[in-house]
Fold these 2 entries.
Entry 1:
Amino acid sequence: MTRTAPAAPPRTRELRRAFGRAGQYLALAAYLLFLALPFLWLLSTAVKPAKELGSLHPAWIPDQPTLENFRQAFDEHPLLRAAGNSLLVAVAAAVIAVLVATPAAYVIARTRGRSATLATGWVVVSQAFPFVLLIIPLFLVLKNLRMINTLWGLVLVYVVWALPFALWMLAGYVRAVPRELEEAAAVDGAGRLRTLVSVTAPLLAPGIVVTAMFAFIIAWNEFFFALVLLKSPEKQTLPVVLTHFLGAEGAADLGPLAAAAFLATLPSLVIFALIQRRITGGVLAGAVK
Amino acid sequence: MRGGARVRTLAAAVLALLLAVTTAACTGGGEDAGDGTIRLRFLSLAWQKESVDANRQLVREWNAANPGVRVAYVQGSWNSVHDQLLTSFEGGEAPDVIHDASDDLADFAYGGYLADLRTLLPERLTSDIPRASWETTTFGEGVYGVPFLQEPKVLIANRKLVESSGIRLPTAERPWTWDEFRGVARELTRSMGKGRYAVAWPLKEPVATTLNLGLSAGGQLFHREAGGKVRIRFGDGDALVPDVIRDQVNEDRTASRTILGSGGSDALPGFFGGKYAMVPLGFSYRQQIAQQAPEGFEWTVLPMPVGPGGAVQGVSPQTLSIAEDTRHKREAAAFIDFMLRPANMVRLAKGDWMLPTGNAALADPALRAEKDGWAVGTALARGLRSAPAQSVRGYPEWKDKVATPAYQEYYSGAIGERELKRRLERDGNLVLARYQR
């Protein structure tokens, strides 16, 4: 026979619930603040004059906020052009990666047998190579293709780089789509491709958006390939240009660097903000169905 | 349905636009216009505004005077130059003229990626730069870079704090000994009060600082044996500077422990706030100090202490090299000669707040002014030597895998001198052996 604790009176339960909810909100607020701190500090640094950057007790809100760092960053380095290049390669890489990965992920997710296992295994193994090892062979391959110093060459690299991750992610989404829907489409006479395009792909939309977004961010932030593959200054991407604010032995042009880095984080934030509602909407719509 | 059609149309339009714009961005440019003009690419690591301006201006002047040999300025970065160059060399796409530091050149020179400059440079340039500087870019029989800018370590000091303490201030002619420096630091720390320190050693990258200052104590660490192989031997001379730093941090408590793992820039707020009286920094840090120091903050430049080895320091100058693969070595050498004419060398030195290597540039009055410590720096120039590890193959790997963690642990007090010696010698020689088979 087990003994159960006596139930708390209703008033106490309500109080506990209220405290519990307040605690949850407090924890959430603290977490959000924790996440936002680096970004806020970056913004604070970006609008500080040089004299305040050297202060022993730096303030969150500068005494004399200035846009001078932004002016200097734009004056000294081609940030807009670099941002344009980054945007082009990141969008192109994201779009192509998703276009290639979606049917491939469908095949991996829906096929049972040795080939699917092998393909999945290869995806995992391909992630184990550090890209420092790959860069020289890759450089030579792209050189033979006459794609060194072209943004298309970089797009190609980013697509290849993002594909395993995109495949992995999308295969999970495909598995979550009930087979019965596809079987129903087959009964209605739809072929594999038609089923994928008309039935499965719309249900995959949230997954495709998330995958594209991550592929975009991977390409947007990537530095090393862009550094070694692009020779002409006018083709350099934003992460490469950001390193021009750094000197030897840890020296940095801190104010303009913070200003440029702040601007570099904005596209990712904007994209997340724009897409976030669609992702949530898509996921919820799937749940209701 | 209408919504779906609209989305498809929009997607198609976005894709078409993207392809059109990307294609436009990916084409054009072209390096060879087919008009007989020689085109060279100059990879520059200048990063401070004045320095970038000086470099770009010199490139413009060259292009204006030499329409047949056009030079394109390509901005590089100190943090990634080694990997960038290695890949470019391997892929046969290296820039024609390369700005780098001499301690990064050894593997490229031995690997055959850089042109031997001995027959390419004019006598004017060769004789203007002292032999000690040329040694930094001489590997085996060849010379693989023109050393043109260098910086000694100096003590940047809070003028009011050090002057009010009544201690004797060192000069280039009469610097402190390392022993005196320890005593001065004790005196200063006592007078400064709790939570404040005479010295801050920002030793995020401890190896180059330790080895370069070690020359003044007679330290050498790397010994070339008969047959040309290099072995590491940690002697008394190699121990003096590390011992002073370790004792200041752990025993005397005259140096801040918290700043040990930081870079030079990180020490500046504490320096400006009066927390540290002196910070050993590269000569070029004066630019940041002049820019960031609060109103009324007075600072001065003092020479580093010296030991039995005399007032010498190791340096790894900035260099200009020519890629072995370039088809236009003579033109590239002519461009380097132009960049490093005495007046131009002065412009580059002022832009970077560094010292020129050339004797003629060093004599320029603009670089001998008392203001901002230029005079102290130029007085130290005669004691600058090739950094101890300069021509040692495998040095970067030894530095990263063995020496950096060993010195960091030693300075923090985690290991003793025996363990430091064991790691530098035993583990270090294993690394070097792989490069000297």
Entry 2:
Amino acid sequence: MQALFGQLLLGLINGSFYALLSLGLSIIFGLLNVVNFAHGALYMSGAMVAWLLAQYLGIGYWPALLLAPAVVGLVGVVIERTMLRRLYQLDNLYGLLFTFGLTLVIEGLFHEQYGNSGNPYPVPEVLQGGVRLPFMYLPEYRAWVVVVAMIVCFGSWLVIERTKLGSYLRAGTENPRLVQAFGINVPLMFTITYGFGVALAAFAGVMAAPIYQVSPGMGSNLIMVVFAVVVIGGMGSILGSILTGVGLGVIEGLTRYFYPPASSVVIFVIMALVLLVRPAGLFGRQK
Amino acid sequence: MKKTVSIALLLALAAPAGVLAQGKGISDGVVKLGVLTDMTGYYSDLAGPGSVLAAKMAVEDFGGKVDGKPIQVVSADHQLKADVASNTARKWIDEQQVDALVDLVSSSTALAVMPIVNEKKRIALFSGPGTTAITGDKCNPYTVHYTYNNWALANGTGREVVEQGGKSWFFITADYAFGKSLEEDTSAVVKAAGGKVLGSVRFPSPGTTDFSSYVLQAQSSGAQIIGLANAGQDTVNSIKAATEYGLTKSQKLAGLLIFISDIHSLGLQTAQGLYATTAFYWDHDDASRKWAKRFQSHPDNKKKAMPTMVQAGVYSSVRHYLEAVKAAHTDDADAVMAKMRELPVNDFFAQNGRIGPDGLHRHDMYLVQVKTPKESKGPWDYYKILKTIPASQAFPSVEAQKCPIAVKK
């Protein structure tokens, strides 16, 4: 019973990661209609940049938490301005293929330079150690990850659903010409959105760096799961991706406990089932 | 009458074959080695490009020629997939006349190419895989298992840990041929030494990055020792999770297969104190230091990493193969295998190593412990060598191997 509670908590921790990543993916898809396959690679870049900052400039975790997403977000802006922008008019399959190619290039470059077995990134000093709960030992850093992920997820949701900027964004995706006619710079909004989505991925990467090794493969390990989360939650639904992210983390944790060999497929089984019953996803709207 | 005719016929058929075998020399005028390894995946740092480099260094040291004929090295990425490995092996042998396959890291790919080398009579020099089945019940006359096997790892680390008082064990096992075999072998050693095995959890590999849930199960098992029957990035990630969840405060980790690249990637802070059994450590003696530094500073070694035991084993196995080709004056697999078994291995990697009729290369192994950050004097200064395990104790005897072709003889 104790172990079960432990697994539930672990599921929650993993789920908050899934939520953080699928959130960025959902925002980009919801507003730009681009299936951003490069999300995993950008997540990895966030972790890599944090590691590079520590390695070569001696910049620690806390500044990196802001710096790395800023750097990677800027790269995202450049990608959007110079390349992705040209694909908006086309079928979104083109965006998917382009970002997939981008993933291979980014991962390839890091792999070539830093090998595959990863590099250590220490947990910041303040968060070392843990709390002994009645049913498990909870590392402080993991608790911190859950709290931050929840705050970021909720904050993003608020901005998009409840603010003026958010309403411009949503309107811009519905009818860009009309919104532009009101004097709003729609292309700039798209750039900001993509940059923000990318920065979110990079932020998750920095959060992940002390937990996993910082290695070029860390994004591709996760991206398939995150895509499944987004599909189950409903492409473009922000609330959907947050809730399913957390929920699937818990389900995966429980599978690891009861029948480990199935843990790597359980999410995809659920995805298949959901697609059969509700093709638009649990929280998705049929277009 | 009928009998005489058939005997005559047989003789007629046999005679030219015999003549051919004698005068075979180097077929198609070139000795070709194919390094089939994991170039980009989980094991690419411990084998991968470093294995290709090691093979090339062995060829360089041979002057690029054996018995007057050029030596060529080709390489490919098997992506840790058995089907890719067997397809590549078949293509290499059929279309490119590759004479020997090298490395084959990961047991599943090694087991997949074994029937092919057996059928086509080509030689496989395995340096990366660990499963004991290679020279056990699945053995064939054309395979050499060169660097280490799971039995050696289990006996080295497993026995030592039990002797130091680690009586109860729980395993975190990679769910494929290699991991399961390592768990079985170590369980047997633990039980034989008077310990007991409380259980195990098997995780999908590759594909698992988060080990916290397995670590938690290991923790709640209450075992004194948590045996890690996994390799490469899996080991690294499981050690990381174990440290994070405070497992190392009340229980001890025993990494059953640890490569120096794993230690490098973990950092000594996390890895300190771990026991490991290894076939090679660069800082062992003058010869190993000399070779390792050459490897490290080679222009092809972009990461400037020290060689792992797999990579050192690749060099040594290729070199031994070439020596055998030179001595046999042919690349005919049967003749070369006979020479490889006949000649001892003496280089920086092994002293008086011998390849048995089962194909297992028996040589000394080392039990090492990872240094603390204070003990380490610099980069790659990671191991204290606790003892040398002599070949006769490090590897199972031919009889114990249950290899059908070795037992018949």
